[in-house]
């Protein structure tokens, strides 16, 4: 009896840790360097700290370098967000995690491509895991 209860609890915990949540869209269109948004558009330096308000976003620290992979194009021209990940040996635990951050919080220091494509965002752009 106790082993089946433990198994049931384990399955429940496993299910909770793999559940993704669909969040509201931040924009309907985005700019990327390729169709998969896998090419880095630019490198930027964080001008100030930003604390992520929810799972769609990443935390950035002032002075931290950020790889920019996409730039959202808001319909109303406000709330411009870019997507990327941080790079810093000091914050190695954050490296590789993609998320959004406000564009005014960073200054582009190096552009890697001017050859970009505009495309529709999808629901998958705003899933949190």
From TrEMBL:
What organism, scientifically named, is this protein from? Ataeniobius toweri
Q: Which residues form the SH3 domain?
A: 39-111
Q: Which stretch is the leader sequence?
A: 1-20
Database matches in InterPro entries: OTOR (IPR042801), SH3-like_dom_sf (IPR036028), SH3_domain (IPR001452)
Note the Pfam families from the entry: SH3_2
| Statement: the UniProt record of this protein carries the keyword Signal | yes
Q: Which UniProt keywords apply?
A: SH3 domain, Signal
Is tRNA-binding one of the keywords UniProt gives this record? Answer: no
Task: Report the protein name in the record.
Answer: SH3 domain-containing protein
